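Minutes, project check-in
Item: structure for the 153-residue chain
Input as provided by the requester:
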Amino acid sequence: MHALIATDGSQVSLEAARRACALLNPDRVTFVTVADTSISEDSGAGGFEGNLLSVEESRQARGALLDLGQAELDDTIRSLGLDPAIVETQLLEGPAGPVICSAAERFEPDVVVVGSHGRGWFQRLVIGSVSEYVARHCLSPVLIVRAEDHEQT
């Protein structure tokens, strides 16, 4: 089984990756981390006052974001202890939901795994949800691994 696991370096996505690997026991895993560089490409969004960041500052911000994304991806792989022979990593740029769906079309996995913070319907309505976007738009089957609520016992 080939699993595409989307991660952002958060505890929620790391736990989703762990639980998905234990459940699915994939023989091939593609980890995708999405760096949303659209903010840094915006050159600061200064409005009427003009851009807040110079072109060079914007490039530096984009580079830092990509470096952080790669570090998070490397940390995720190490922490899961998977056989490196079955793991492929991809650091992609853009808005997370559409980029994950595009990656699924490109890599054709048997399943796409995303984590969910377990927010209520109102928060999803107001701020949106990457996992909900992927579930609605991805052509591959999607496994949403909800974060465990450690406060309830």
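Outcome recorded: Residues 55-80 form the longest helix (26 residues).
No further action items on this chain.
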